[in-house]
Each structure stands twice: as structure tokens, then as C-alpha cells.
User: Fold this.
Amino acid sequence: MPRPRLSFDPVARAEELWCQHWGADSPHDAMAAATSVMRVQQLLLARFDAVLKPLGLTFARYEALVLLVFSSAGELPLSKVGERLMVHPTSVTNIVDRLEASGFVERVPNPRDGRGTLARITPSGRDVAARATERLHAIEFGLEALDARQRADLTGLLRLVRIGAGDFPDSRTSE
Assistant:
């Protein structure tokens, strides 16, 4: 069921109220930008989950499958899955449990770590990941309101935020 549209821009209203409470010289522009990013993330996740639900996936499960598809052997330690997806080990366990119950991954012992477990993608996992990707491509990952240049600009700006937050080193400036 689609979410009802709001009759106003909640970020603009929050910025207005922010200025009223903390003054126009406060970092209201930073608050509005950060709030916009978070709201867009929520909107995109809801849309992705709706598109993926008929396949028995959520976006979090899709991300885990794609991570396994992209791995050289089609398998990764659960700790690596959590690290790369930036989720808590409990969340990784839940994601892998659901994917395993659907037959999209299997748990196997890690031969390099006697105590560790690998998540390995199955052929049906590869198939559903491909079908899910087609569905996300069809909606341009929810960014169809932007043209290619705008998407590239957005990616570049968000990359700077990620570098500033210490997500990864900026290889373009380290020489």
C-alpha cells in the first residue's frame, strides 16, 4: 500500500522551526541537508522493499546477496558481511537466517577459521539476486527524478561526506 503524501515539505518545516528555536545563525542548512539525506534513505528503503517483497527479499537481504555475488568465491565470513554492510552481527545472523530459510544461501564451515562460518550463495540465490537487480534497474534505484548528471553529482557529494566521516581514505588526494 503506497504511503500517503504529506501536504508540506517536512524538512523545510523542520528548518523553519529550527531557525525559530535556535536562530538563523545556527547550522540550519547542515541540519536540513542531513535530515534530507535521512528522509531520502527512508523513502528509498520503503520503495526498494516494496519492489523486492514479491521475490521474498528485503533490501538488506538483497544487499547481502549482491555482496556474495560480487565476492570471488561466492562466499564470505559472516563477520565480513557485517563489516561491509555496516550492520551488527545480530543483524547479519538474522539476514543470513532468512536467506538460508529461502534457499538463497547456505552456511558452511570456514576452512581458514575453525570457529567461523561462511555464507555461501546458492544457484537460486544468484537467480533471485539477478531478478531483484532487474526490478531495481526498472525503477532506476528510486532516483528516476534525477538525470544521469545529477545522479553523478549526488554520488560525488555524498562521497565527500563519507570520506569526511572516515568511511574510507580519499585515494585521489593521497600521493
Notes: The chain has a mean pLDDT of 92. Residues 49-163 form a domain with the Arc Repressor Mutant, subunit A fold (CATH 1.10.10.10). The chain is about 60% helix and 5% strand. The longest helix spans residues 28-52.
